[in-house]
Amino acid sequence: MNRHNLIPFFRSSCECRRRFFTFPLFFLLLAGAGSAQSFDPWADSVVVFLPGEGQNFGQDPAYFPRNVLGPPDSTATPTRASTDPNEILSLGLGGRIVLAFTDNLIIDGPGPDFTVFENAFIRQFGPKQGLPFAEPARVAVSRDGVHFVTFPFDSLTLKGLAGVTPTNGAADPTDPDSSGGDSFDLADVGLDTVRFVELVDVTAIIKDNPDHPYWDPTLSGFDLDAVVAVNSVPVVPTAVQRQNAPQRFVFELYPNPVSHNRGSPVVQMNLPRASMVEMALFNVLGQQVMPTEHIRAGAGDYRWSVPIESLPPGLYFLRLQFDNRVAVRKLQIVR
Ligand SMILES: [Ca+2]
Ligand SMILES: [Ca+2]
Ligand SMILES: [Ca+2]
Predict the structure, then answer these.
(1) What mean pLDDT comes out for the span 131-152?
(2) Nearest ligand, CA 231
(3) How far is ligand 2, taken at its centre, from the CA of residue 139, in Å?
(4) Which ligand is nearest to the CA of 13?
(5) Residue 170 — very low, low, confident or very high, per pLDDT cuts 50/70/90?
(6) Average pLDDT over residues 158-169
(7) Which of 29, 34, 277, 298 is a Cys-bridge partner for 322, taking CB atoms 3.0 to 4.6 Å apart?
(8) Cα of 310 from ligand 2 centre, angstroms
(9) How far is the CA of 41 from the centre of ligand 2 (A)?
């Protein structure tokens, strides 16, 4: 692979095996609503890969980008990490990759919202026995692929970095309590929803410091296995492109929180041009809780009131789609 060149990828993961762990009811609901959307919890495409120095395992087009889309290696255990190029991509020291979700968006639901899987493992012998062999990456997220927010991390404890916790391949990858990997909560960076996840290898913070508790001279950089959404909502699959100047539009929801005795919350939109707008409401399990609403909205201000009469109190996500654009807002219904 040609190093130090920006390599754009717009490859879909449609050929990846589709497995569903947490949303069977969702499909029944969709079938009932006469809609036919399907999605997987995995990252769907690689937008940018900029390899770093040294290790180039799994970078051959025979393996990449397939090896970072789809679920993590199901054979990995905390003491036997994946070394399969069909599953693992080495970023190299300082390498950078951006993955996109195209058939689902990660949302800020309860607890962690996505998990990054790397081939870390727990050392079984030597002076660092019991400590992970960690080749970390910092993690950033973005709605538009342009503006990224980095999760805070600690260089010494590695808390807040990916590539630290081994994979438990036998577990459900969408269950952070058992899956292993390093999980991230959008609430920690104040975002309701993201489409893009960026990983930048920072192994140098260990490798360049012989006093670091995780130091090892053989560290060669972050090895990505998978990025998996824990909380997400489906979206109409679109080709993802980097938007240099995303056209702004207004999408407000008020009152929010709302209670039944205060009437219905109102969506206020301001669209750049007349569009067919799709509205759908999901609960925190990603289950659609009302039929998709199709609205023909003109350019400029438009209001629509969300029918919440039959919904129990709780946290919901309202998804708006038009012209291949998508946005999600949290809605809290209280007693
Ligand atoms: Ca997906
Ligand atoms: Ca993989
Ligand atoms: Ca969350």
Answers:
(1) 95
(2) 3
(3) 17
(4) 1
(5) very high
(6) 98
(7) 277
(8) 42
(9) 13
According to the model, what pLDDT value does residue 249 have? 72
Domain ranges of the chain: 1-246, 250-334
Lowest mean pLDDT among 124-133, 205-214, 295-304: 295-304
Q: Looking at residue 32, what is its pLDDT? A: 34
Beta bridge partners of 267: 253, 304
Compute the distance from residue 113 Cα to the ligand 3 centre, in Å. 5
Could you tell me the two tokens for 268? 């206020």
Centre of ligand 2 to C-alpha 198, Å, is 16
Q: How far away, in angstroms, is 301 Cα from ligand 2 center?
A: 45
The arithmetic mean of pLDDT across residues 73-88, rounded, is 96
CA of 256 to the centre of ligand 1 (A): 29
DSSP type of residue 6? -
Q: Within 13 A of 129's CA, how many CA atoms are on the CB side?
A: 4
122 pLDDT exceeds 90?
A: yes
pTM over 0.85: no
Confirm or reject CATH 2.60.40.1930 for domain 250-334, answering yes or no.
yes
Q: Which ligand is nearest to the CA of 228?
A: 1
Helix (H, G, I), strand (E, B) or coil at 125: coil
Dist CA 159 CA 118 (whole Å): 15
Return the CA Rg of the chain: 21
Q: How far is the CA of 17 from the centre of ligand 2 (A)?
A: 12
Q: Are 27 and 38 in contact (CB under 8 A)?
A: yes
In which band, very low, low, confident or very high, does the pLDDT at 23 lie, cut at 50, 70 and 90? Answer: very low
Ligand nearest to the CA of 284: 3
